[in-house]
Write a structure and sequence with these properties.
Two copies of one chain form a homodimer. By secondary structure, the first copy, chain A, is an alpha/beta fold. Chain A has helices spanning 10-17, 21-29, 43-54, 69-77, 113-119, 131-143, 171-183, and strands spanning 7-8, 41-42, 60-65, 85-92, 101-102, 105-109, 124-127, 148-151, 165-168. Helix content of chain A is 38%, strand content 20%. In chain A, helix 1 (10-17) crosses helix 2 (21-29).
Chain lengths: 189, 189
């Protein structure tokens, strides 16, 4: 779409994506047919429909827990708004960080978490805190009704609750997978 | 091991890991039997052997490309040494960052990349740069013989080369998966 392409075939998509054309057609067919045989897909139509399937038109309210390097990187780099979220609060327990500004948001004290969640509907918490802190903070958030988590910590939240939605970004695991693949010389499939 | 446990059964492991005991036994059996029926696994033995399988005793030399918030977070938070790597260089093209110190390493100019790689054997490059910069930098590194990448950028390196090893950390994808799961109320399996 950025390049002004308006129609694209599954074959052209397959070159760009490293999948077979048939895989792409099958996957898209799971959500209803988006293309016309012989005419390919409307690029804008595909963009909008995939966005709808993902739910990107939502604006789930997210708070960030932890304003260290990682939290700051997540707050600054991620375009939450384009991904179905809006970042509405940032919390930390470090006095040196509380009151500083990241992305037009003032970093709040962890002590203000309960008040904030009672005054604002919060859908999602983003965990950028050390493993040891995660369990306790998740307990507080769960009690406040926040049950969706984007989890960068190394604590496995899904072990404690079965009615939550957790999406993990486990960078340690990723690094060990890389180590395994280098050690076993296993190139990208 | 941290808790002083010396032996553990697949059942006890399954409670901690959210997998069935039989899955755990089957997975470990793929690498040879580590346990004794009725006696469980030696915790230290398992720790060492899994580390060996992953190749964590290696010390692959890694350089970090990009010393922004994300790069800094990766450099500071990741215990490369425990994961089979050692971080030996950090590069950026921002004059404000060049010369600053992160984790006892001075941030070098991107101009020094060729010289550094000729003087030091580099196994892995960690990409913490914007999508637009990745392709060009990968070309330079590939020419220098660096063919393993830990990729935080949103550029799909595997499309350009088929003899490289890439491990992606695609945080945008992860956030969209979370959006999809919240929109479709799909809890953790």
């Amino acid at each position: 779409m950025d390049k002004g392409v308006t129609r694209i075939s599954s074959r052209e998509l397959s070159d760009k994506m490293g999948l077979t054309a048939s895989q792409i057609r099958q996957d898209l067919n799971c959500f209803g047919g988006f293309g016309q045989q012989g005419y390919g897909y409307s690029v804008e139509g595909l963009y909008l429909k995939i966005g709808q399937i993902l739910g990107l038109e939502n604006s789930y309210k997210a708070i960030l827990i932890g304003a260290g390097n990682l939290g700051k990187a997540v707050a600054v780099h991620m375009s939450f708004e384009k991904k179905g979220f809006s970042l509405v609060g940032i919390f930390d327990n470090d006095p040196a960080k509380i009151g500083s500004e990241i992305r037009d948001l003032k970093v709040c004290s962890m002590d203000e978490l309960e008040l904030f969640c009672s005054e604002n509907h919060v859908d999602v918490a983003v965990f950028c805190v050390p493993k040891t802190a995660t369990k306790h903070i998740a307990e507080r958030l769960y009690k406040l009704g926040v049950k969706n988590y984007w989890n960068f910590s190394h604590y496995d939240l899904s072990l404690d609750y079965d009615d939550i939605i957790v999406e993990n970004v486990h960078m340690n695991d990723s690094l060990m997978i890389l180590c395994y693949r280098i050690s076993n010389k296993e190139p990208e499939k």
